[in-house]
Design brief:
Elements (H helix, E strand, L loop, with lengths): L15 H11 L2 H4 L4 E5 L5 E6 L14 H8 L2 H10 L3 E12 L7 E6 L2 H14 L1 E11 L5 E13 H15 L1
Antiparallel strand pairs: 1-2, 2-4, 3-6, 5-6
Length: 176
């Protein structure tokens, strides 16, 4: 079995704590049913590698990986990463997603989710100025030869939690 660590070179490390987190996400029922598995989770949540293979639970009618499995395996990762990196004073939502199927997946494919310090600084600066920020992040599924099978663009919304709570209070007050 090929592990994502041999595909995506990284300076990040897993800890016992991140291995437990990885185990918990992989066994969360809705994620488990996608067929995707986290095979690397850095201790700081900034880097996640996942894999998805063709098997009887992920196979579609024509013998390749079902598009819903590909989409679902990619779906929550960026949001979960940012939720843990930014902390409880921020709200993180997936706003939308687009997936482009480049070629049928008939083998194990891998995806790397990387949140840089520069992105974190940009998010915090935008929120400090405007209280909210919407941006796109791209991720691909590729094989061990770096051939790309799927590309997905995720639109993420991040806001200052107290700002959103005040907006909600004002809206409720205006309705009353």
């Amino acid at each position: 079995m090929i592990m994502a660590r041999t595909i995506f070179k990284t300076d990040s490390r897993e800890s016992i704590k991140s291995k437990i987190r990885k185990f918990r996400v992989n066994f969360f029922p809705t994620y488990r049913r996608t067929g995707g598995r986290i095979c690397f989770l850095s201790n700081d949540w900034k880097e996640v590698h996942i894999k998805l293979g063709l098997n009887w639970t992920t196979r579609n009618y024509v013998g390749s990986v079902f598009g819903g499995c590909l989409f679902g395996a990619l779906d929550p990762i960026y949001m979960i990463q940012l939720f843990h990196i930014l902390g409880k004073e921020y709200v993180v939502w997936d706003k939308s997603a687009m997936i482009k199927f480049i070629k049928p997946v008939k083998k194990t494919v891998f995806a790397r989710f990387l949140i840089t310090n520069e992105l974190i600084d940009e998010i915090k600066a935008k929120i400090e100025n405007k209280n909210k920020f919407t941006f796109d992040l791209t991720v691909t599924f590729q094989d061990d030869a770096e051939s790309i099978y799927v590309e997905s663009v995720r639109t993420i919304f991040v806001a200052d939690k107290s700002y959103l709570e005040n907006l909600t209070r004002k809206r409720r007050h205006n309705r009353a």
